[in-house]
Design goal:
The chain has 92 residues and is mostly helical. The protein has 4 helices and no strands.
Length: 92
């Protein structure tokens, strides 16, 4: 089933466009999808308009669509990398 879309034109400053492009690239989505996600995240944030760190983390995790299997693989890989890394202790 097709999703209805509305084409709109907005004037954005260069810094905002670069940030949007960076977000889209990092998430592997189009700029339109990145903008949709940012708008949804803003709506889900606290009424003050400033998202809490926990809300931002929750939104990031939702946006990744990370399955428990994929999370388990990441956890095992990260643990193996930490164990393989040379241990450095700071002098006291």
């Amino acid at each position: 089933m097709a999703t209805a879309t509305v084409k709109s034109t907005y004037a954005l400053d260069v810094e905002t466009v670069r940030a949007l492009e960076e977000m889209a690239s990092g998430w592997g989505v189009s700029k339109s999808e990145a903008l949709r996600r940012a708008i949804r995240a803003a709506l889900l944030g606290p009424a003050s308009g400033t998202p809490t760190a926990l809300a931002a983390l929750d939104e990031l995790q939702r946006s990744l669509d990370l399955t428990s299997v994929a999370a388990g693989r990441w956890e095992k890989k990260a643990r193996a990398e930490r164990r393989a890394a040379p241990h450095r202790r700071e002098p006291r």
